[in-house]
Amino acid sequence: MISLIPFLGKEDDMLMSDEKILIIKDLTVNYPVDGNIIRAVDKVSLFLNSGEVLGLVGESGCGKSTLGFAILRLLKGGKIEEGNIFFKGNNLLKMSEKEMQKIRGSEMSMIFQASQNALNPLQKVSDHFIDTLKFHKKWNETTWTEIMQLIDQLEIPKSRLNDHPFQFSGGMQQRIVIALTLILKPELIIADEPTTALDVLVQARTLEILKELIKDLNLTVIYITHDLSVVSNIAHRVAIMYAGQIVEISDTSIIFKKPAHPYTKALISAIPDVKDKEKKNLAFIPGHPPDMRNLPEGCRFAERCPYAISICEKTVLKDVHLTSTSKSGHLIKCLMYQEEYSHLFNNFSDKYEP
Ligand SMILES: Nc1ncnc2c1ncn2[C@@H]1O[C@H](COP(=O)(O)OP(=O)(O)OP(=O)(O)O)[C@@H](O)[C@H]1O
Ligand SMILES: [Mg+2]
Predict the structure, then answer these.
(1) Which is the closest atom of ligand 1 to the Cα of 66?
(2) Residue 351: which pLDDT band, with cuts at 50, 70 and 90?
């Protein structure tokens, strides 16, 4: 039973329930590059309830895709150094590759960044469905009616199933990829920037369709994006990632209405507002994420943080659970909220008070 996992401390027990489909604890992933180590994911812990959508948001290079690949054990060139990943109570890191192959695709799946490129240009769309189902030994269980229903829901014209992928627009190709992922009926989907390459209107419609499908099929989803505004309408909770670490995680409404981490605040004020011309000018966060080969001991955002004081970069951070109205918790990695240091930040008038 999941609740008997021995390494979880008291605080984690508060967040435990039998509904949790995925539990990641202290996951660390390294890439060796030119004699250096890039710690792309650094002691990341999170959980997903069954049927929940978690938005995973952060700037380019912060480790979002690496975390997704690690969950499916599909890392290329990277190594899981530490941690555990429990899927439906089983530790994925203790499974053989053969066992993982059974789970991949049919129980958990990933919609890859720019995955429409993975469609075979020489093969008809209908054959993609047949091959996918045959490969996963689900051809006998899945009927054409089910395929047609899914295609209908994704608004892919049935009359064009004998066309080749290159005859479709980018948005339609992406929907074909989504259909090919969902036809295997996985419970957990890691959607890595599934709509980023699409134009705004197509993106909005695809998101709407995805949202309906997630509800209808009771999918559990990690929705990866660099664009915080994208997850506002689809995610139940949001995890904000910065330079390999989760720096804040809570309910979507709390992240948008009462963000606590200075980086989350900056991301929210960087969302362009077409109605507010002044806000348009704030549409970027000054500075750059740190060099992943040479990270400070303390806060990685300190260099760009308007609230930072001299000790921020040098002091190792602890995760703080903020007492908030959220049942699922509000976790933050920032010195300002650590009891022993919080008095040093009292002069900030907009400091978060739970
Ligand atoms: N195969 C690899 N070999 C070496 N370094 C890698 C590899 N893949 C990723 N990295 C590095 O790991 C860090 C995290 O990369 P990752 O692709 O996970 O970020 P991301 O948040 O998904 O970025 P993006 O939004 O651009 O997709 C980056 O510093 C990246 O350069
Ligand atoms: Mg990525």
Answers:
(1) 18
(2) low
